[in-house]
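User: quick one, fold this
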Amino acid sequence: MTCVRMCSTPVQQDASSYCYKPCDSPSVIDVEQKVEQLKEKLTVDRKSTSMYKRSLRSVYENRTSAKTIGIMGAAIIASVIGLFVFFDCLRWKQDNKQ
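Assistant:
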């Protein structure tokens, strides 16, 4: 705390010394402005962080289990889509026959 002798509000620092509180405390507007300035100063752009940059890169996976799971997933998705296409072709063929 700074010792200012302009106001008459004494604050006891220890057993024998006093300090006077400053009377003109910062207004609410000043505090809000300072908070905004600090926010602007301390804000970090998300796209400039190394975490964001790492999230854009994919890593080559050399493990056999990872390759197997990827191939199995692609096969399942392809078989489901192929099944729908097959049934649509059958229905289209039946509709054209009549």
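User: anything notable?
Assistant: The mean pLDDT is 81.
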